[in-house]
UniProtKB/TrEMBL annotation:
The keyword Membrane applies. Keywords: Cell junction, Cell membrane, Membrane, Tight junction, Transmembrane, Transmembrane helix. Belongs to the claudin family. This is CLD23 protein. The chain crosses the membrane at residues 12-31, 84-105, 117-142, 162-182. It is found in: Cell junction, Tight junction; Cell membrane. The keyword Transmembrane helix applies. Its main location: other. GO terms for molecular function: structural molecule activity. It is a multi-pass membrane protein. InterPro entries: Claudin (IPR006187), PMP22/EMP/MP20/Claudin (IPR004031).
């Protein structure tokens, strides 16, 4: 009877960070608050327009009336950083799910010995998925003040963009942690 090997800490860290990153990236992808536009001339002073990568919402702070599905009169959705985010973020989410599936098979907590090579491959997939969501978040942030907005309005970063950053960083960190499994493969050879 062989003693049961414990799951390596790096694998556990990867399996905790990556699903958290997935949830944050999913929220950041779907929620319409990548950028806030406020103090718009000729509009109520408490009106805030929230722009995401899929939707534009208007909210009046005093009454909390919120209307989404607003028309894109300035061509916001035609901008390259928004289009890139619309393509790369869903791809990143699918890749994260695939990476987590491979990681679950590689870590195999129910077996005596984890499959280090498979866990390492999952780490690379999750690292790539984190980079795929980090690139559009960085590009959007870089272009945030250059994207179309009403003249003389005030622009601010929205929470969805911050969540996308955090989710990307957690996925990259979790992917790197799982990637440490390759070390065990090299040690065996």
């Amino acid at each position: 009877h062989l003693p049961r090997m414990r799951t390596p800490t790096a694998m556990i860290v990867g399996l905790v960070l990556c699903p958290c990153g997935l949830l944050l990236t999913l929220t950041g992808t779907l929620a319409p608050k990548w950028r806030q536009v406020s103090l718009i001339p000729d509009q109520p002073i408490d009106l805030i327009v929230e722009q995401g990568i899929w939707d534009i919402c208007r909210e009046q702070q005093s009454t909390h009336d919120r209307l989404c599905g607003q028309s894109d009169e300035l061509g916001y959705f035609e901008q390259i950083p928004v289009r890139v985010a619309q393509g790369m973020l869903p791809t990143s989410l699918v890749l994260t799910l695939l990476g987590l599936l491979v990681a679950a098979l590689g870590v195999r907590c129910w077996q005596k010995e984890p499959w280090h090579l498979l866990a390492g491959i999952a780490g690379l997939v999750l690292l790539l998925s984190g980079l795929l969501s980090l690139v559009p978040a960085c590009w959007y942030t870089h272009e945030l003040w250059g994207l179309p907005a009403p003249d003389r309005s005030t622009l601010a970063v929205g929470y969805s963009l911050v969540l996308s950053y955090l989710g990307s960083c957690l996925e990259i960190s979790g992917g790197l942690a799982l990637g440490l499994s390759f070390h065990h493969c090299c040690k065996e050879r």
